[in-house]
Amino acid sequence: MPSVAKRAFAEWLGTAFLLATVVGSGIMAAKLAGGNGALALLCNTLPTGAILSVLILTFGPVSGAHFNPAVSIAFVLRGELEVPIATAYVGAQVAGGLIGVWAAHLMFELPVWQFSTTVRSGSGQWFAEGVATFGLVLTIFGCLARTPQAIPYAVGLYITAAYWFTASTSFANPAVTIARAFSDTFAGIAPLSVPPFIVAQALGMAAAVAVGQWLYPPSATSAP
Predict the structure, then answer these.
(1) What is the pTM (predicted TM-score) of this model?
(2) Which residues have a Cβ under 8 Å from the Cβ of 23 and sit 6 or more positions away?
């Protein structure tokens, strides 16, 4: 088993690459789509789904490749991850997300320090975040119970789909949500919109843990 330092570093670096991809592809999409919102979203979606599969394959053997506080806390609630390790993971994920956003800004020669002005609010978007997070966590539990080797592809495909079937474009990740508040680009979210998103994500995660406890008891899975 890798040391806690190595595991936390893997979470930090993986989350940084995830956010660099989300924000960087959003910037590129907005530049090239010529004002076509659907095309820009598609160009933002495909790299995000692809990089998730790559990052889980790359860092999964080290940390389990959570890159998401909702996932880490879900495993704590199932008794499959110790609280001190989960705390290290969450801190690394949030910090890594900010580094990834700033790296994307530097690559596209934008001001590093920004706050988003894109308001994402309303009951539909909040419900969508709950649904998106519920589906993501349940996807992980379901694959882990029978086909753990499929998790990288299942997660990448789920997020690719959820970008389009949820009103919120499926943030489904508190670290991602916080980091995107620091980017006034295509992928940004206004800081005041962040807390309701995180509450919705937490509720979706809790619901997934409850359903997963019934469908896939902890004895049927092993935490990544």
Answers:
(1) 0.95
(2) 100, 101, 104, 105, 179, 180, 183, 185, 187
| 84-124 pLDDT tens trace | 999 999 999 999 999 999 999 999 999 999 999 999 999 99
| pLDDT at residue number 158 | 98
Q: What SS3 string covers the chain?
A: CCCHHHHHHHHHHHHHHHHHHHHHHHHHHHHHCCCCHHHHHHHHHHHHHHHHHHHHHHHHHHHCCCCCHHHHHHHHHCCCCCHHHHHHHHHHHHHHHHHHHHHHHHHCCCCCCCCCCCCCCCHHHHHHHHHHHHHHHHHHHHHHHHCHHHHHHHHHHHHHHHHHHCCCCCCCCHHHHHHHCCCCCCCCCCHHHHHHHHHHHHHHHHHHHHHHHHHCCHHHCCCC
* Torsion over CA: 50, 55, 61, 65 (sign): negative
Q: Which pLDDT does position 218 carry in this prediction? A: 72
Q: How far apart are the C-alpha atoms of 204 and 77, rounded to whole Å?
A: 13
